[in-house]
Automatic annotation (TrEMBL):
Pfam families in UniProt: I-set, Ig_3
Keywords tagged on the record: Disulfide bond, Membrane, Repeat, Signal, Transmembrane, Transmembrane helix
Transmembrane domains' residue ranges: 327-348
Organism classification: Eukaryota, Metazoa, Chordata, Craniata, Vertebrata
SUPFAM superfamilies named among the record's database cross-references: Immunoglobulin
PANTHER family named among the record's database cross-references: CONTACTIN, PROTEIN SIDEKICK
Domain of life: Eukaryota
Alphabetical list of InterPro entries matching this protein: Ig-like_dom (IPR007110), Ig-like_dom_sf (IPR036179), Ig-like_fold (IPR013783), Ig_I-set (IPR013098), Ig_sub (IPR003599), Ig_sub2 (IPR003598)
Domain Ig-like: residue ranges: 39-121, 141-206, 224-322
Keyword Transferase annotated: no
Signal peptide: 1-20
The keyword Repressor is assigned to this record: no
Name the UniProt record assigns to this protein: Ig-like domain-containing protein
Length: 368
């Protein structure tokens, strides 16, 4: 198919190349008819060669109107756009955005390089050549979706109620990922999930491989599934402590709340309070930063609580605050060790006779 098109194109080139001096305009690419859904976009493409390079124009004939009218860049409240280039040959792409039923009709690509082509009175010697394509705009057909409890799993069903479309297969997507594909031509397609939970929650799209493709979305929704990034966090006195919780279920968390567990109930933490507590949240993550950590005040358990329309869930994180000194202990330990070693060496050296020194040195090096 493709190679055939290529051969045709090169044949046209040869033909025109052979014609030499004549150089009248000829199409090497013609616009193709398209079916689109209301609200979608379409591109029509046209290419012409000739000497000099021909001019390309686009014309439109509505189904309800027998006369062609010329289209320009920005027509129909900017829903029509054109991109035309004249380098070596003429190429033009017509874009129709946000299609509506009024866009339905015949689109014509016209090309000509006759010097008199746009003359108001003179009739051009060589007429405009034309190439047509139809654009059909249809409404998105109704797809009836359902979600039912079946034994051993939940069944998602899509039923395409339009019998005019030719179905060459189906796809199921979770989010943007294709999770199932088939080449069935049935009006109904199903997908089986293992119950409704945080893992199966998400946006499922059933897509009918028709021309154009039609689809429906089924939302599997749950309350947030909140987990602590780390169940235990450590911080040093005076430093900043960072506690993080996540939720990867669907839909996203609408509101995150942090609180600290204390003997007299949970104390909510207000963002920006005391100039120490800072909360940063997105739909799937929340982060609590505590500046200038103090042992007595900040050590303890914290709860992050995420909620959406389906409910809420919390996760607990323990924060351990080490004293500055504690942070130093390992370092002090090493220093002490080195000091003791140096002292031992020093004393040892002192007690040795001078002629023993070289041999002794090597021993100490290996020791260190
Ligand atoms: C048909 O198109 C012409 C040219 O754009 C316009 O003047 C005329 O009003 C249209 N007729 C109808 C019935 O839309
Ligand atoms: C117009 O065509 C040129 C060259 O093909 C391309 O670089 C540019 O992005 C096109 N503009 C639009 C709006 O598509
Ligand atoms: C499926 O069945 C379970 C109990 O067996 C019930 O809790 C759940 O709400 C049902 N889900 C739907 C979508 O009917
Ligand atoms: C759904 O899948 C489960 C196991 O994955 C299976 O036991 C069950 O029969 C399936 N249900 C339907 C309706 O296909
Ligand atoms: C699918 O939709 C058609 C048309 O509305 C209806 O006749 C048919 O019963 C539906 N099938 C199922 C399995 O729901
Ligand atoms: C599915 O969820 C998305 C995002 O929350 C929402 O925009 C859409 O309206 C929902 N669709 C249905 C059918 O509930
Ligand atoms: C907390 O306050 C900071 C500014 O002080 C702001 O950038 C941030 O978005 C706030 N967080 C929340 C969850 O409102
Ligand atoms: C969390 O949400 C942001 C945007 O809200 C997104 O870029 C990111 O990929 C999400 N992360 C996960 C793990 O879903
Ligand atoms: C989360 O906060 C809500 C109030 O908004 C509360 O009812 C619920 O018990 C909290 N959940 C946890 C696990 O703390």
């Amino acid at each position: 198919m493709y190679s055939f098109a290529l051969i045709t194109v090169s044949a046209v080139f040869l033909l025109l190349g052979g014609r030499g001096a004549d150089g009248s305009a000829g199409f090497i690419k013609s616009p193709l008819s398209e079916v689109r859904l209301t609200g979608e976009s379409v591109e029509l493409h046209c290419e012409a060669i000739g000497h000099p390079i021909p001019e390309i124009q686009w014309w439109f004939e509505a189904d309800y109107n027998d006369s062609f009218s010329q289209l320009w860049d920005g027509a129909r409240e900017d829903r029509v756009q054109m991109n035309t280039t004249y380098v070596l040959h003429a190429t033009s792409t017509l874009y129709l955005f946000n299609l509506s039923p009024e866009d339905l009709g015949t689109y014509e690509c016209r090309a000509s390089n006759d010097p008199d082509r746009n003359h108001l009175t003179k009739i051009p010697r060589i007429k405009w050549i034309r190439s047509q394509a139809n654009v059909v705009v249809i409404d998105h057909p109704l797809i009836v979706t359902s979600h039912s409890n079946a034994t051993g799993g939940d069944l998602l069903t899509c039923n395409l109620t339009d019998f005019a479309l030719v179905i060459s297969g189906h796809q199921w997507l979770k989010g943007a990922k294709v999770i199932h594909e088939d080449k069935d031509s049935s009006q109904i397609t199903t997908h089986n999930i293992t119950g409704v939970n945080a893992e199966t929650s998400g946006q499922y799209t059933c897509k009918f491989l028709t021309s154009p493709e039609v689809y429906a979305v089924i939302n599997i929704t749950v309350a947030p599934h909140v987990v602590a990034y780390k169940k235990t966090e450590h911080g040093n006195e005076g430093d900043t402590g960072v506690l993080t919780c996540k939720s990867n279920s669907f839909p996203h968390v609408e509101e995150w709340m942090w609180s600290m567990v204390s003997a007299d109930g949970n104390k909510p933490i207000v963002n920006g309070s005391e100039d120490r507590y800072y909360i940063k949240s997105t739909g799937n993550k929340t982060e609590l930063r505590i500046h200038q950590l103090e042992i007595e005040k900040d050590q303890g358990e914290y709860i992050c609580n995420g909620s959406n329309e389906h409910g809420n869930e919390g996760a607990i994180i323990s924060l351990h605050v080490r004293s500055r000194l504690a942070a130093l202990w390992p370092f002090l330990g090493i220093v002490a060790e080195v000091l003791i070693l140096v002292t031992v060496i020093f004393i040892y050296e002192k007690r040795r006779k001078p002629d023993d020194v070289p041999e002794g040195n090597t021993t100490f090096v290996t020791l260190l």
